[in-house]
Amino acid sequence: MEEKAGRVFITDCEGPITKNDNAAELAEAFIPGGDRFFRKISLYDDYLAEVVKKRGYKAGDTLRLILPFFKAFGLDNRSMGKFSRRNIELIPQADCMLQQVSDVMPTYIVSTSYSPYIKSVCEVIEFPFMNTYSTVVDLDRYELSGEEHKALKGIHARILDLPDFLIPSVGGSLDDLSAEDKQALKDLDEIFWGVLPGMRIFRIIEDVNPIGGREKARAIEQIIELEDASLQDVIYVGDSITDVDAFRMVKRGGGLAVSFNGNDWAVKEATYAVTAQNALPIGWVAIMFLNQGLAGFEDLTVSPVTEQTVERICRESSRIRKSVRTEKIGTLG
Hey, which end of the chain has fewer CB within 10 Å, N or C? Predict the structure, then answer.
């Protein structure tokens, strides 16, 4: 099929292409109590990005906050790459979908995930790594003194000892937090912006720039410049809080923002929400957009995200998300 000029397909990786949450899985494998530890950091990330909107902070920065603890518990570049390659789980038909879409329009992956994981995924699905954006990290570049190694293990234990907490749902505020939750979040503020900045290893947090939030939006801007396209030519597929800025920008520009088995953050910012057990519907939507643009969706049976439908879509999307990506990963932001 001849390539139709103009349209550009851009997708997140974890969710639309793979079932994994690579950073969460690395934490569970290498950090004691890593499941609970990562969940606390992930919720804190959501809180900073979307509740208090901390200046200079963006959704997905969990991936830099956790790096000192990866160092403290022995993770290095080699083990990160080896673990990532060994544990890839594709969404059914994702490789087929990407191949079909790549045959007819420029196709890119924009992911918050660490680059070693994205490189491994590209090798498995035979997708060009040069057409990806991801979080560059080099753990071996940073040295950890014995004193700081011991201190980080103490901080790790302190975080694990914090009571489990919840943050407000989309549109919530600080007033929705319990006193206990506020104290836990205050303790995390003190750890990450009081204690850690006084340590040399904090440089890894300063240096690493996760491709989440507005960085995903910037990646889209770079892609459309490369392809001599415009935002109205873009279909962007995502599923989580890190896709919110990309969704907002694409929608404002007249393009198509598609939530695929998304959580509440994604569904409420999407143009359309798709729920499915395999990735083929993403390709169908992409081909429709390629041929007819947004107008092509007027006669399809899809669920537009509106004030009247959003709660139902959130419930259904959340149910499918947990079914496809497991209960544990499906509840992450």
Answer: N
